[in-house]
Amino acid sequence: MREWLRWPVLRQITGEDPLGRGRAARSRRTDTERARTAESDAVVGSVCPYCAVGCAQRVYVRDGAVTQIEGDPDSPVSRGRLCPKGAASRSLVTSPSRESRVRYRRPYGTEWEDLDLDTALDMIAERVIRTRDETWESTDENGAALNRTMGVASLGGATLDNEENYLMKKLYTALGAIQIENQARI
Amino acid sequence: MAEAHPVGFQWVMEAKRRGAHIIHVDPRFTRTSALADTFVPLRAGSDIAFLGGLINHVLTGGHYFHEYVAAYTNAPMIVGEEFLDTEDLDGLFSGFAEGHYDATTWHYEGSRVNASAGERDHWDELFGPGGPESPSGWEPPAGGPERAGSGGPVYRGTPELDPTLRHPRCVFQILKRHFARYTPEFVERACGVDRHRFRQVAEALVANSGRERTSAFAYAVGWTHHTVGAQYIRAASILQLLLGNIGRPGGGILALRGHASIQGSTDIPTLFDLLPGYIPMPQAHPHLDLDSFVAADSAAKGYWANMRSYLVSLLKAWWGEHAVADNDFCFDRLPRLTGDHGNFHTVMDQIDGKVRGYFVVGENPAVGTANSRQQRMGLASLDWLVVRDLNLIETATFWKDGPEVVDGETGPERIGTEVFFLPAAAHTEKDGTFTNTQRMLQWHHKAVEPVGDQRSDLWFYYHLGVRIRAKLAARQHHRGPRQRRRDRAVLELTWNYPTEGEIAEPSAAAVLREINGVDEAGNALSAYTQLRSDGSTRCGCWIYCGVYAGEVNRAARRRPGQEQSWVAPEWGWAWPANRRLLYNRASADPRGNPWSTHKAYVWWDPERRRWTGHDVPDFDAATPPDHEPGPDAVGPEALRGDEPFVMQSDGRAWLYAPTGMVDGPLPTHYEPQESPLSNPLHRVQRNPARQLYPRPENPYQPSGAEPGSEVFPYVFTTFRLTEHHTAGGMSRWLPHLSELAPAMFVEVSPEVAEQRGLVHGQWATVVTARAAIEARVLVTPRMRPLRLGGTVLHQIGLPWHWGPNGLSTGDAANELIGVALDPNVHIMETKAGTCDILAGRRPRGRQLHRLLADYRRRAGITDLTGTTRVEDTARSEGSGEDEGGEHDER
Amino acid sequence: MSDDALNRLSGPLADPSREAGYPAQHPPRVGFFTDTSVCIGCKACEVACKEWNLLPEDGLELTGMSYDNTGGLGASTWRHVAFVEQRIDPASRARVDLGMPGMGGSTVPEAEESGELRWLMSSDVCKHCTHAACLDVCPTGALFRSEHGTVVVQDEVCNGCGYCVPACPYGVIDVRPSDGGAFKCTLCQDRLGEGLAPACATACPTESIQYGPLEELRQRAQHRLEQLHEQGISEARLYGHEPDDGVGGDGAFFLLLDEPEVYGLPPDPVVTTRDLPTMALCAAGAAVAAAAAVVGCFWGGGR
User: Fold this and answer.
1) Is residue C6 part of a domain?
2) What is the dihedral of CA B390, B393, B395, B400, to 10 degrees?
3) Between B and C, how many CB-CB pairs are < 8 A?
4) Is the model's pLDDT at B122 over the cut of 70?
5) Are residues C66 and C42 in the same domain?
6) A176: nearest CA in chain B?
7) Which domain CATH number covers A52?
């Protein structure tokens, strides 16, 4: 009965929208549709990952997935606004192009291979230890302490968190690796 | 700024709405120019000439803020008699020999200037063979590039000064002479800026500076990516100091940085020459211990004098109970530097087989770094490579589909690099802080779990550390005594972070708290002034101390801006001490009163006997303006009440740098490494101290009057678009960004199009000695020829976002660029170079190599091209040293 | 029902929502005021719109039209930023559009004689006309007037007939070939219900896109126009704000710095259904006559 009453023509004839261009034309979905952000499980405070202006973001989450990212109007820096890149943040984090599995290429290999994360981590740890041992420099020609390896280098950090950079620098320094650089210079 | 930082640009628009005059100076007419009141096109690589012209205008017209300059800068300091200026030596400062400056002659009369800790080459001069036992009478060595970061170099003694600024050897008079030839006519000749337009700019700037008004400068890598880049910033500093625009609201020189935490990655440096908080990495030296390392700073004035506290607290944070006074707090575990270990050097070492393993984390050097081919050659020479990123970027796939593979020059079966690609977590999948371009830390909360093998870099490095430590611990009984000794630095490292969740994600909050530091009882510290040198405090980065004050993560504060003052101190946390404006003591006059009511920011409250105001005062809150330190005072206590530049060893801002810069105490116009013009100012064509790497894969082009320079007649500059991000790793894979700027293009003027037969929308090939790339042609009047005296100069613009992978593809502009560096900071020159441009697509395979060989032959390029330090065609007789024909040798 | 039944497809109309059957206490009519004098051409609006409305990418073609690679509004692009490069003649202050630079002949001006440049940027969008022809011609009721006075397509109702496409005087609405439906800006109908501003206006860094009650926006625009005129920017003008224009005024109107055609906007848009009532009356008369004839036939046939 109710469905029948929703029939546009009937609503058109009986209602205040005789030409059927407004209220009478609305579908059920139109009447029930809500902004998807209104149905979020959580709204999480974040910061845009692109440039260094540091625009605040609100990340909307539903069922463990990011459904929308918008500027946070409370921010005194950005006042809720985003540039095209910041506005594309949802696409960035939900992009189907993102790799979700470790890829491994053996020396002289012609294709990627699968490798589980734990094995990859183990292999990398072995390579660090071996390289460090084989390239360790205790002192220079004048007998001055060097305490370092020139066999391991690192590049990156400007897109990372401070905490990540901190652990990198701490671990590398303890290992004696000094060729640690990031985009801040280049 | 509208291009690369659109949301920051809202404040420029806000200022414009309130009547501010917006001036945009750029080789290209960009989206920023479109909104500016005045657009000034200038020749790429000529900014020191332009800024020097403004400095000259301010000095000769008497437009400087006299009281500010006399009280807060080193303008009154008298420089020693031995100093000779570039104006005296036709392009060289005194002390140049063998490609380097000895800064001995640059110092003040009556004082000694020391380079800071770790200065290996001059250690003996600094301390004598016996080490730093007698702090008096140290000789002033040259400042090296790898010395401390944020504080100025140290000097001692009381330099003579002339508050009237009239002494012929005072800094002020030296400045006047140095910049006297930077006239509007010179600016026109050097920069291609019409003299009337230049005057308009100068007058607008002067009218908007002084007691009642302030002007701000914003810049990005258009100023830093030059062989004389650090001096660009020095030139802006001089100008802003003369106008009284530093430390005051609405003033400043604002670096617009391009990555979410590029500031943070400098503060907590993934950089070779620094430890957290701009403490220098120690250089190798036989006598180096903790005492001698900090000695150069410890007896000085200002907050750097407490470096021992900062460093000991860092060592305690890293090695905990193992770091004690008896073992110098494990200072000897820090690896030692022996010069420049920057990325370019490292990559060349990779090519030469010296580096075996390489981690590339959120960066894409295969297309994102100058001379990309050289970078890929480095990658192909490694034993193993770890790439962590969101997408399969070019750096991960170089062995499979890099340009050299596509061109048949090499192939996967000939590349022995073992590659691990580890998918990274995105910012929404991890907790942590970014430090933005205003030094503000902001916490981002984890919103969702990463998928599959995706992990945060925090996870990766924590678990890698756990794994390495476990393996080393298990093998200790198999390892020799020397190995065991070196392993202690790893095994005794504090590495116990709580983890959470199924994937055992380490707690970023715990790491931030370690960075903040704790006292002996393990409670979070609240300010770096609490740090002690006796080992009773631990702190991972002294300038970040306070971010966790009161056990509260202040970076996560989000009190709405609309509920706060305009300074908004309760949104995030800015280092140091949550100060939003550095050196803000300078916003008040020497007596502590605001320079003007309109520009009040912090001031001395005589009733409460405290500094107060809108921001956290950048000064000891209880030190009155008339404070005179005692004769034996050191460190912060040695600062007078009217010395706002508290990190400098004299409390003053430096118009003239008596040490600390390796290429001169003052900025001087030099041509870029590759320029079609001869230096219009003096005979020395290029920065004589620039860093060069002549190698087969990195040839340089002739410049200026050198034969063959006409083969590369066009100036190119690289730029960013708002639609993309850096080398494209975070934008070229996204449909909504790729469609907005879907292909690599080159911007040329209608004139260049006509000269070279380029057709709008069709292809063009851009050629340098290193590479040829193709791009679609965008003919636009926004690129305009410049008239420099009798010459008409044409410039072309190249966005640098592209590479072969992703949705939007194209050749990388970085292929074209040679590696020639600023010697202070080892940054390459991407913003001004020379090239040729041809219609049509670039050739492939062997034909491409033939084209390049042909260009190199026509230009007469050899190993030595471009490596001349000082031209030997002296224009005036007896004008100092003649270092002609010197070359960098590696 | 309104008294001026014949005029309801054109001319001033104070309250299109009321006209469309919403109760008197419906929310105020809202819209966009796009102030192109502060647009920086960043295209955040295009991206924010696509991200919110989950629109597909619209082609990866470098168009060569300055920095505009979107080309225009369409089924998958509901905000579009136009870029216009102009050279201003220093003598006459006349503006010369540079549609396809480099294609022309050899009259290349000398550097110093070429005068000033102007780079106009403007974010275009559906105008949400007071009299919306797309809505009027829609045979399925897929297009409707919302309680906010906006014009919205209901994807699940649309049968893709495409009648609306030629009806739009601005060329806004279009059919997406991949799924056959007609699409255009909804002014983020779903967001409005939650009290949120449309995605484009939310993102816009410089407040070039302003969202709000139409009356308020019109006042704001008038104020801004006066301000610009005071600053000597005499070429500033409003577009689409007049309730008595050919579409009864736009729900999304603009402040432009040149003639509308320069931005690709029609100078004098007229609702394509303006004459429909008259035509409908004639048609109705004809129909009655035809029906009578048919009936007559039957009558005749029945005899």
Assistant:
1) no
2) 130
3) 127
4) no
5) yes
6) B335
7) 2.20.25.90
If contacts are CB pairs under 8 Å, which of residues 29-48 in chain C contact chain B? Answer: 38, 40-44, 46-47
Q: Would the CB atoms of C57 and B735 count as touching at under 8 Å?
A: yes
Comparing CB atoms, the residue among B740, B759, B786 nearest residue C46 is B740
Confidence of residue C98 (pLDDT cuts 50, 70, 90): low
Task: Please tell me the predicted confidence (pLDDT) of residue B712.
Answer: 98
Interface of C with B in 106-125 (CB under 8 A): 106, 108, 111-112, 114, 117-121
* Cα angle: B349, vertex B350, B351; to 5 degrees: 90
CA distance C184 to B685: 59
List the single residue in B2, B31, B739 with the smallest CB-CB distance to C57. B739
Chains in touch with A (≥3 Cβ pairs < 8 A): B, C
Residue A35 to residue C194, Cβ atoms within 8 A: yes
Do C174 and C37 belong together in one domain?
yes
Q: Which two tokens stand for residue C159?
A: 């049968």
Q: Nearest CA to B430 among C127, C243, A59?
A: A59
- Tell if the CB–CB gap between C69 and B753 is shorter than 8 Å: no
**In this structure, are A140 and A71 located in the same domain?**
no
d(CA B178, nearest CA chain A) in Å = 30
Residues C187 and C239 in one domain: yes
Considering only CB atoms, which chain A residues are within 8 Å of C156? Answer: 27, 29
A158 falls within a domain: yes
Task: Give yes or no for residue C99 having a pLDDT over 90.
Answer: no
Are B424 and B457 in contact by the 8 Å Cβ rule? The answer is yes
Contact C203/A71, CB-based, under 8 Å? yes
| Cβ count within 10 A of residue B598 | 12
**Which region among A89-93, B101-105, B228-232 has the lowest average model confidence (pLDDT)?**
B101-105
Q: Is the dihedral of CA B684, B686, B692, B695 positive or negative?
A: negative
Q: What is the dihedral of CA B389, B395, B399, B404, to 10 degrees?
A: 160
Q: Is the pLDDT of residue B147 over 90?
A: no
Residue B85: inside a domain, yes or no? no
Task: Specify the number of domains making up chain C.
Answer: 2
**Same domain (yes/no): A58, A85:** yes
Residue C8 lies in a domain: no
Residue A186 covered by a domain: no
Of B706, B640, B623, B697, residue with least CA distance to B671? B706
Tell me the torsion sign for CA atoms C232, C235, C236, C238.
positive
DSSP annotation of B304: G
Q: Which residue of C has its CA nearest to B11?
A: C206
> Is C160 in a helix, a strand, or coil?
coil
Same domain, A15 and A66: no
Q: What is the mean pLDDT of residues A95-119?
A: 98
Is residue A167 assigned to a domain? yes
- The answer to whether residues C157 and C209 belong to one domain is yes
What would the two tokens of residue B267 be? 């503060």
Q: Which residues of A touch B364 (CB under 8 A)?
A: none
Verify whether the Cβ–Cβ distance A33 to C191 is below 8 Å: no
Same domain? A84 vs A116: no
Say yes or no: C197 and C277 in one domain. no
Same domain, A23 and A48: no
For residue C154, the enclosing domain spans 14-271
The domain in which residue B788 lies consists of: 691-858
Host domain of residue A156: 103-181
Going through B696-806 in order, the beta strands assigned E by DSSP cover 714-719, 745-748, 763-767, 772-779, 786-788, 791-793, 795-799
- Co-location of C172 and C199 in the same domain: yes
Pairing assessment for the beta strands B357-361 and A145-155 based on DSSP bridges = parallel
User: Structure pTM?
Assistant: 0.93
CB B221 within 8 A of CB B822: no
Q: What is the CATH number of the domain that holds B785?
A: 2.40.40.20
Q: Is residue C48 part of a domain?
A: yes
Same domain, residue pair C86 and C105: yes
